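Order emerges. One example.
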Amino acid sequence: MAELLSLEEAVARLVHDGDTVALEGFTHLIPVAAGQEIIRQGKRDLTLVRMTPDIVYDQLIGAGCARKLIFSWGGNPGVGSLHRFRDAVQHDWPVPLEIEEHSHAGMANRYVAGASGLPFAVLRGYTGTDLPAQTATIKPITCPFTGERLTAVPALNPDVTIVHAQRADRAGNVQMWGITGVQKEAVLAAKRSIVTVEEIVDELEPRPGAVVLPAWVVTAVAEVPGGASPSYAAGYYERDNAAYQAWDEIGRDREAFTKWLNELTGVKA
């Protein structure tokens, strides 16, 4: 059953050095505050998983938290590259970064397999691409019924999945709406989970199209107003486009990034 914790306590108790950690959220409800708390606590040697790593993963990589990234697309949406990501891959700064690249369909199916308790998923999506030659976790498989040549990808079962949502009640039931991506599957696939929310309420009001994660599938809930900013939270605040543009200048320069990192972590220059 979900515990109501502070974000600091949830990260300290549930995210460990060497863990495989998924911070999911597509376009909105991105758990930025949680990612920055991982940086503050100096977690290391993480395998980071995310379908679309954006600036919070750039921050985690630049801070030296990651040893590997499993992903299907990476960039600063609407702006350009992730410069800390590029620096780690191309120049091993601040530490070398191993990458494992998949398609969006492959990543989504890996989460579904993990959530379903299956060892792998099967799809057609890699046919005609060179990803199987680049990624060891993409393997050809033959359908035993039709003989069709398909592709298998292993299940994703993160040690901990972190997502952001709009609301939770005091029992730990979580409610999210809008573009929800693979958050539900990522939580169900994980051994442990942290959900940050805009607010904790006495009762969840029904909303059309909302996803409800029951308390028994969530490990911890932390109330973190604004926890998705600069992404947006439907019904609460809009996307801060200026922050994404500003990150391009911060991220592309090691000195500027180091200054930002010191301010985040409270280290005096």
Observations:
- The mean pLDDT is 97.
- The chain is about 30% helix and 25% strand.
- The two ends are 43 Å apart (CA to CA).
- Residues 104-116 form the longest helix (13 residues).
